[in-house]
Amino acid sequence: MQTIHVSSAQQSPKSTVLIMGDQINRGIASLAEKTPDDTRILFIELATKFSDKQWHKQKVHLLLSALKHFAQELREEGFEVDYRIAKNLSEGVKAHKKDFDVSHVIAMEPMNWNGKEILENLDIELVRNNQFLCHYEDFAEWTTTKTKFKMEDFYRWQRKRLDILMDGSTPCEGKWNFDHDNRERPPRDGREWPSITLFEHDDIDNDILQNLDDFWGAYPKGVWPVTREQALIRLDEFVNGALKPFGPYEDAMLGKEWKLAHSVLSSSLNIGLLHPMEVVRAVEQAYTDGEAPINSVEGFIRQVIGWREYVWGLYWLWMPEYKSENFLEANRDIPPAFREQGSTEMSCIRGAMDHLHEYAYTHHIERLMLFGNLSLTTGINPQELTDWMWSRFIDGAEWVMIPNVIGMATFADGGKMATKPYASGGAYVNRMSDYCSGCIYDPKKRTGDNACPFTTLYWDFLDRNENRLSGNPRMGQQFGGLRRLADRSDVKVRAAEVLTKLDEGTL
Ligand code: SF4
C-alpha cells in the first residue's frame, strides 16, 4: 500500500477526487478543472478484484498498469496521490478519509450500477459522467417517445444532434447506412493486414508481469495501450492505416489473422484513455480529407456513436433486473471448448479461442456468430456467459457485456433489445471465414458424424424453442423451414450427441 500519512496540523483544505479504474483520463468531469493546489487524488485497487473470475492475464495487466501509470502521471503533475489497496470501495474510502482527515470526496459517476450505488451510500459528491456522448439520463429521455428502442433510430438521432457525418440535415452521401458494401468475404490471397506498434513494457509493467502466473491466457505483449500517449498512437495508426480496409472486411474472419483491419481501440475507449468524440472526429476528418471511403467511416462511426452508446444507455435503463434475465431458461455450463485452447475439433471455435488466448480479443463477428451463436443454440447460461466474456475479453466491462450477452447474443431478454435470436448454422461461417475448409465437420450437413455442430444445433434450437419463438413475426420463414424438414427426428438425435460431446470436451 502506498499511503502517505500526514498529521492534522499538515492538513490543507484540499478535496479528494476518487478515480475509478475505468476513468483513466485527465479530462474526466471530476478532475478536468482541478489542480494540485486544491485537490488530492485517491485510487483504490481492490484486493479481491481478480479473484472472482478466471481473468485473462492481459486484462489484469491492462487494468493495473493503466491505473498505476495514471497515478504516476498525476504525481508528476504535482498532485498528492493516495494509491491504496483495499478489500472494497467502502473500506478504501473510509480509510482514506480517516488517514487524511478528509471530509469532502468527489467522484465522477462510476461506469457500473453497483459502483454507483456504493458511492451514493458513502456520502461522496458524484459528478455527471462525461465519458460518453449521450449520458444515460439523456438516453432514458430519448426512450420516452418510443415504444421500441431501435438502435438504428438512436444512431440517426445521435448523428443529427452531434452533427457527425452530416451534410446539413441529410447524411453524407445521402444514406445513413453503407452496410451492403461492408460484407465482403475474407480475401484468400494471403495479404498483409495493417500492423500495429507493440508498446515496450516499463518498470510498472514488469512489476505486474511478475504476478500473472495464476491467470488465463498468454502474457501481455504490448498490444494494449496502458497510457493515453500509447492510445493516441494506436488511434493514429488506425485512422492512417486500417480505416480504409476496415469497412469491407469488418465481418470477415480468418484463422491466421486475429484483428484484420479492426481498430483495436475498444479497450482504450472503455477505460477512458480515449474519448469517443476525439476518435469519431479523427475518423470523420479522414473522410473529409478524402483519405477513407464512406462505407468504412460510416461503419466505424456507427459502432462508436451507435452501438456502443446504445448498449450503455440500455444498461442503465434496465439495470439491475436486466442482468438476471433468462427468457430461454438456458442453464448449460460454459463448455471446455471455451475454457482451454484445443478443446474442440470445431475449427472456427478453435481459431477464435486461439485469438482469445493470445490477445484477449476477438472481433465482433467471432464474438457474436461463433461464441454467441454456440452459446445461444446450446443453451449456455447467459449469466455465466456474461462473466466469461467480461473476464476474458480485454474490453469487457459489466455495462458492455450485459446488454451484448443478455440482449444480443443469447436473446435472454425475450426480445427487448433484438427483434429475434441471432441463431445461425454453419453456412454463415463458411461464407464469412476460411475456417470450414480446414474443419473435420461439413457446414452443409445437419446429421451424421461429420455434420457441422452449428448446422445441427441451429435446427435443434428452433425445435427446442418452437413454443416460445414461433409467434415471432420475424421468424416465420425459419419455422416454416423447420416444419418442412424431413429428417427432424434424426437432427434431434445428432443434436443430443453434439451436446453430450460439447459438455465432455470431445466435440
Ligand atoms: Fe465451424 Fe462448422 Fe465450419 Fe467446422 S464446419 S468450421 S464447426 S462452421
Write a concise synopsis of the structure shown:
It is built from 20 helices and seven strands.
- String of helices and strands: EEHEHEHEHHEEHHHHHHHHHHHHHHH
Coarse structural class: alpha/beta
The first-level CATH class name of the largest domain: Mainly Alpha
Note the beta-strand portion: 5-15%
List the strand order in the largest sheet: 3-2-1-4-5
Average pLDDT taken over every residue: 94
Major β-sheet profile:
5 strands, parallel
Radius of gyration: 24 Å
* Level-2 CATH architecture of the largest domain: Alpha Horseshoe
Task: Give the low-pLDDT segments.
Answer: 1-11
Morphology: globular
Which distinct ligands sit in these coordinates? iron/sulfur cluster
CATH fold title of the largest domain: Serine Threonine Protein Phosphatase 5, Tetratricopeptide repeat
Query: How many domains?
Result: 3
Helix run count: 20
Fraction of residues in H or I helices:
40-55%
Task: Characterise this structure.
The chain is an alpha/beta fold and 507 residues long. The chain folds into three domains: 2-127, HUPs (Rossmann fold, 3-Layer(aba) Sandwich); 136-318, Serine Threonine Protein Phosphatase 5, Tetratricopeptide repeat (Alpha Horseshoe); 326-504, DNA Cyclobutane Dipyrimidine Photolyase, subunit A, domain 3, CATH 1.10.579. The protein has 20 helices and seven strands. The strands form two sheets. It has a five-stranded parallel sheet, sandwiched between helices. Strands 6-7 form a two-stranded antiparallel ribbon. Helix 7 (228-246) crosses helix 10, helix 14 packs across helix 15 and helix 17 crosses helix 20 (488-504). Bound molecules: iron/sulfur cluster (SF4). Iron/sulfur cluster is lined by residues 346-348, 426, 429-430, 435-436, 439, 441, 443, 452-454. The site of iron/sulfur cluster has 14 residues, from helix 12, helix 16 and helix 17.
